[in-house]
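[step 3/7] fold_predict: job queued, chain A
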Amino acid sequence: MKALFGQQSSPGEEMTFVFQEREQLPPPGDHEVKVQVRACALSWLDTKLLSEIKLKKDLVPVGREISGVVLEVGSKVTFFQPEDEVVGILPLDSEESGLCEVILVHEHYLVQKPEKVCWAAAAGTVRDGLRAYTALHYLAQAAPAATVLVLDAASPFGTIAVQLAQHRGAKVICTAHSLEDKQFLERLRPPVARVMDVSHGKMDVAESCLEETGGLGVDIVLDAGVKLYSAEDESASKSQLLPHKHDIITLLGVGGHWITTEKNLQLDPPDCHSLFLKGATVSFLNDEIWNLSNVQQGKYLSILEDVMEKLSSGVFRPQLDEPIPLYEAKVSMEIVQKNQARKRQVIQF
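[step 4/7] structure written:
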């Protein structure tokens, strides 16, 4: 059996991906499940995070969102039986690569896959669904009639976030990074309240949001990164399509929630004062927290089950690329690691 791993010879260097021959797996441990992988979604590898929590290895397993069939269960497994169809996310400290035909997983990282959901859709939606739930339900407590701004809403995560917000009765405003993205977002049903095309750089996001909300501002902002500095100080590699942090603070309403994916966010005293006057909060979206502590395991599994139920009922309609065979996984992972994939890449076995 072959499995895909990532290698990084020194910090800052581009990661390379290699197939490694795996030995025959031992029988599952007490709480382990042996799973035959049917599909595995590809996500960007955060080597900095792995290094910060002392999980950096020479070979980093690739592919953590998996769906498959249970082949064998450990003596103390209570959730599953052989031939059950399952889906889940391998933990950060997993030694297993999801891009392998057969793997061992602890039963507490898996949930049942609904029968009518295909393998690729299950694996390709589970992480984006978890992130959307973490942002809107646990960090922002989105209520019906709230106004939600989703930035870069045509991304795989943005699409699921829009669909979850609408399902909860929120009014959704979103930004598009290209004309193609704008057309895709305008075709969504139910329709979003407003799509702002920021690709030409002339759209004032803050002004448009205040206009859409009658000057009150939005209740929840879900960003895709922000500009921290003025244009002349911003590094050339940073996307010019991202809004400035001051724009987000300006368009945020009283008591609003700003959910950010910007891990290096810097707020100056005037920024903090503006947020204080509005009674607004800033929360950091890190979906790995669920697996970094077992205290919330029940809630975590409940979210995964709910994501699968919404996928099964058609509430979630994910942005998936055509399933890719295993021999093309290396090339696909290189594209994902460079953040060049606009749809979720899924390897089908």
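[step 5/7] annotate
The longest strand covers residues 32-41.
Confidence is low (pLDDT under 50) at residues 233-238.
exit 0
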